[in-house]
Amino acid sequence: MASLARLFHQLSIGSAVVRDVRLLPACTISTESLARVMNKPKPGTGTAYRRIVHYPDQYTVEPLKVTNLAGRDPETGRLIAKGIGGGIKHKYHWIKWVRDGPAEGAPQVEKVIDVIHDGCRTAKVALVAVGDELKYILATENMKPGDLIKTSRFIPRIPVRANEGDAYPLGALQVGTQVHCLEKFPGQPCHLIHSAGTYGTILRKFGDLVVVQLPSKQEFAFQQTCMATVGRVSNIYHNKTPIGSAQKNRELGNRPRSGLWHRKDGRHGRKIRKLPPMRVIGAPAEPATEAINLTLKL
Length: 298
Known about the structure:
mainly beta
């Protein structure tokens, strides 16, 4: 008991640690750091200096015109992003990010007309028809022309057995389903998991939330009414395929970093200085011996 009492006495918090927060001195904050915190740029308002897509007023499946910027500011013409080059000019296919379906009853059936390659993105694009409407969506791994896909916003009591390309709320899908084109908030465009070959996995459900593991291996809990498309994004070998040549890399719009620096010699260039002269590494010095004084008291 005595040893136990000594242990609790050592674990007790001393009076020096417990202090009133109101008595602590206040640290000053500079105006620059305060402005940096208060005036943060809003997300989603960044500028991409690779291309400008000329969007019309209404959605269309016609290929849109593109203006390549090659890393330059569209107004001043100054070079902003050094790693972006010109590249081949591609037409842009407008993706309809909202997969909207009936909230009750049977799901909406859509037919895949064609699966094409889009030079402005890594994944392939599928042309889908429903009724008298045509739209582009991201193609899945095994999607081919003639496939029938379903879209519904209804959450049944028993999870549905969805096929690849179907769009359902997270609450209607089984645990372990691979999904992409995921909504962050219900009703917003699907702006998660778009890259080629990526997918998220439904791990578990609790309450009205569904936990999804994103391609970054991070787990996020979304509302069960968030829409998601079943399957893996197409072009799964995109990150495994080598570019192959410098010409192909320029066609992709990447400016090379080689050739910017080379050693010069001459009067007005960088001087190539001679190496320092040879040094002889000798034997290490022996430690000095201390003199021993002997004293003898007689």
